[in-house]
Amino acid sequence: MKKTAAFIIALLLLVGCRQAPAAYPAQGNKPETRTDSEIAADSLQVQKDIADVFPDVVFSVNKDAAVALKYSGQTAQLTVTDQVGLTWTLSIPEGALAGPTTITMTPLIDFDDGTGTGPKSGVLFEPSGLVFSVPATLTVTGPDVGKDILLYADSKGRDMIPAAFAAGGDSAQALMFHFSTAFVDPVDNEAMKAEADRLYDKYYDKARNLLDKEIRQPKPMSLKLECFEADNGLKGIKEELETLVSEEVKYASALWLALGIALKEKDMAGAQDLNRVIQGLTERALLKLEMLICLDNPKPETYFYAYQSMLLQLQIVGMRTTACAADSNYMENDPIKQSEVWLKAFIGKVRAAGEYTWKFLLDGISEDHEYRYMYTATIAEIMLAETARISAAAKLETGISEEQRHKQFVDACTFTVYFEGTTTQKRDHTAVWTTSGEGKVLLQPADDNSSEDSLVFKGTLKGTYNNYSTTNPTAVKTLLTKEFETEAHLVLELPCCLTGRAGAAQFGADDLTYQSDDGPITVPTGNNIISQLILADYYDALFQAVMAEVSLTPGRSLSEKKIDAKYEYTIVEYTIYLEHTPQSDSRQ
């Protein structure tokens, strides 16, 4: 298969399934009488039972054998052979990540799961927690690998779950939606069959009972768009969604082991029935996610949930469709085609929700001066780029280009820095220079930001000498220099973007030209010294600029701050103004 990553549907074909039996209905008419805490407790118990079969693993990392590549958006492959001779290959499809990313695969050694045996092989994938927009494919080859179990866990070897994999002979293959570790466990057939029977006895009836219950309307989304914190906010949404479908996914995971054993035992009738239950559970999870995010009637918060839901649903659909490998009779339903149609429709709705949220955020920033949306919009921009990649892989509309979208954002977040004030020198006589200036500052690319805790803006400021006077009767009276250029800077602190610093490299020219009786003469001004020495309390060495603290108020476009300083015979007094000046609306 040349482009296994072009779209998840192509990847799902790896299981070799064409048609499968209809799933058990995802919900029935029985009321759900359990409380949220009771449901959470039941879900946690499933995880504990799975952990009894596949306990957490402690391991060491064989750093000397690590391999790495820099993924740049094109199809890529990473391969490593571990100490027991198994070969691990990670195939990453085109458009799987938002930007260039260094990916590392490191063999693991010295396994200990507390049982005295532990996995026979494993690898660590980094960066930890990385999520693919389009899933990668993990392939393991080696003697009798097809008889083993392929498992996924977190970067510490915790929360082990069986991967939805296709295996046979000397290879096993599974979709990989996110990092961090994978293991091959050499399970004894009889011992594993006993564990599978135990999980089957405990959870088959519970799963069927769950499918007979109606789905309660999920609690409303709790996201606030103001002062959105990327790490905590997105993590919170992910956890909220995973909690919503935890019971269905955990039951499916528990029964997955029984399904695998049924296939190995050639119990196709049992496998087919388990397949129907697993498909019903996954369909129920998908329905719950759809009920929460209400894509047909979106709110501004919807997209953040829809985006995370899309990534989660890709995993659930992977489990759902891979389960069809259990069926050998190929009944009339075609889950591959069903999943493709459903996914395309859902992805299209997610993109539409993204455009709705994008317009809401930019309108709020541009028209209402709602600065607390600015960082939220930076996150939305990244998510929309990934959504466009998934849409392109599904051969759907992708919307405007990343360059056009970024220009929209930069235009909405444009500010103008102004200054006006005087520099006075009082010795035997008094000399006063009055200057003013203004310049637009534009949001800089993330790579140019000085800190992960701020947004950085930069621009060119044009200044003017408005007045020059001196009480020295012998000094030249006419200043010929009228204009100068310098750099303007703005730094806004995340996540609210209501406080920060704004200023300019200097408040005058490096040299001034005066008209004397003998003609024009040029002399250095010492403005660099004024900035660094006299205005030292305001000088920012990183930006090499005089920066004043500024505060922004939602709904207001203008902020100002007075600065002053005195050193020996020189007095500097200036006011720095910061105005939000969005550019012409390029969203039309």
Features:
single chain; 24 strands; Chondroitinase Ac, Chain A, domain 3; alpha+beta; 7-stranded antiparallel β-sheet; disordered N terminus
How is this structure best described in words?
There is one protein chain. With 588 residues, the chain is α+β, with helices and mostly antiparallel strands. It has 3 domains: 12-49 and 188-413, no CATH class; 58-112 and 118-185, Chondroitinase Ac, Chain A, domain 3; 414-580. 34% of the residues lie in helices and 30% in strands. It contains 11 helices and 24 strands. It has helices at 8-12, 36-53, 189-211, 230-244, 246-264, 268-293, 302-322, 335-368, 374-393, 402-412, 527-534, and strands at residues 58-61, 67-71, 76-81, 87-92, 101-112, 121-126, 131-141, 149-153, 161-162, 165-168, 171-178, 181-185, 415-426, 430-443, 454-470, 478-479, 483-493, 499-504, 511-516, 519-524, 539-540, 545-551, 558-567, 570-580. The chain has a 9-stranded antiparallel sheet with strand order 21-22-18-17-15-14-13-24-23. Strands 1, 2, 5, 6, 8, 9 and 12 form a 7-stranded antiparallel sheet that branches. The longest helix has 34 residues, at 335-368. It starts with 7 loop residues before the first helix and ends in an 8-residue tail after the last strand.
